């Protein structure tokens, strides 16, 4: 983007003001506005592209960096685009979100083609059969775990695929995280952020969860954020059920350690809007969690640690 200013003309101007300076904004500011709008409402991005070629040029790189595949038809079109631009589009994609509705064979071809991906969210069952065969080195990784299994039982963390993972999000259908063999996570040398996406039906009491959380933090002392993301199948934050979930999370506080953060949200696998937000706002979520951690650290300094009995 050129550093020269982009002039925004008024639609009309009286002849007496012909010598007045043209209003303008630097292109960096305009580009930032467009990206903020696209981030807040991904569906609006497509509409912005139709406004002018300049909008398209500004947002094209963003669209190529973050790819959200929700429906099979979308995945087929994206695979065709990869085949037509193998040396440009495949390397441009940095974040790839694959929903539970995508065909495994198509997903495998896309993962193998996108060599530059550093942020992967794959909601297909047994995702390791797919992502493990791709020569990728992701930094952010989100995936489901089959009911009744521990990640250490089905994941070989010794594989090169996991050497660069710093942010790991795990979703499971049963509340078994307290029985996992967390020592296996030591094989992830750069891991600093862990998110557990759990159904709200598996409510935990502070007293019972305290020991399990501290065992995790003891095994993984380099963790900076341990985010518990309680998932509800309700439609939005205004419902009575979601209000209760949010109050429940507030009651858990930090479990005595400022690195513990609790959040409530609708389930991303079943609600289309939240599927998009999960992919587009993952960085925002981690930043939010980091801000909460810093705030909780300040609280502990002022009030002292929380005691559990």
UniProtKB/TrEMBL annotation:
Source taxon at top rank: Eukaryota
Region span, Disordered: 1-23
Biased composition (Low complexity): 1-14
Name this protein carries in UniProt: F-box domain-containing protein
Originating species: Galerina marginata (strain CBS 339.88)
Phylogenetic placement of the source organism: Eukaryota, Fungi, Dikarya, Basidiomycota, Agaricomycotina
